[in-house]
Amino acid sequence: MADTQPIKEFLRGDRFARLCGIELLEVTPGSARARMLITDAHLNGLRIVHGGAIFALADFTFAAASNSHGTVAVGINVSISYLQAARGGALVAEAREISRNSKLASYTIEVRDEAGCLIALFQGMVYRKPDPITPAQD
Q1: Cβ neighbours for 83, distance < 8 A, ≥ 6 positions apart
Q2: Would you say 105 and 71 are in contact if contact means Cβ atoms under 8 Å apart?
Q3: Torsion on CA atoms 103, 135, 33, 20, rounded to nearest 10
């Protein structure tokens, strides 16, 4: 199994994910899981979880999975479908690699609530660069 420590260290430098309260639970080559505990700051005017908060969780998980092979991957196209409103508790996103070659890779990310209900489905494609992942220097 590949060493995922460099990607874990790299993702610890994601300031926006930290601001959103996103926690990386697991990363293995081609997959990742992350969690976000919903607070009042994640709610929109309807008192449901803001679509941007759900997107941020899915996007972070996408980044973790796509960079897990040890080289830089940058998003070139994403889409998200919101399937059900989320109101609180925690959300968990799980990313799965669908296809990968030397230049492109495709991922599906499912965002679920604590009851296991599918809240959103995110699909993303990355361009894979040859540059190695290196943790940011603060």
Answers
A1: 118, 119, 120, 121
A2: no
A3: -120
